[in-house]
Amino acid sequence: MGATGCSWGDTRSNQMAARLQSKSKGDHQALHDALYQAELFKLVRQLRHSND
Predict the structure, then answer these.
(1) In the chain, % of residues over pLDDT 70
(2) Is 28 an annotated catalytic residue?
(3) How far is Cα 36 from Cα 5, in angstroms, rounded to an integer?
(4) Is residue 36 one of the residues assigned to a domain?
């Protein structure tokens, strides 16, 4: 799906974090989760641009 061509199940944030080697983790606190999702988004965009 999307930038990596992965399966739907691999779009879970914990799967993305493992593949993208994120430094942060979601912990169900709004600010932390927002920062975690922002990091994942940034890493996916970097991955996408490195494959162009």
Answers:
(1) 94
(2) yes
(3) 22
(4) yes
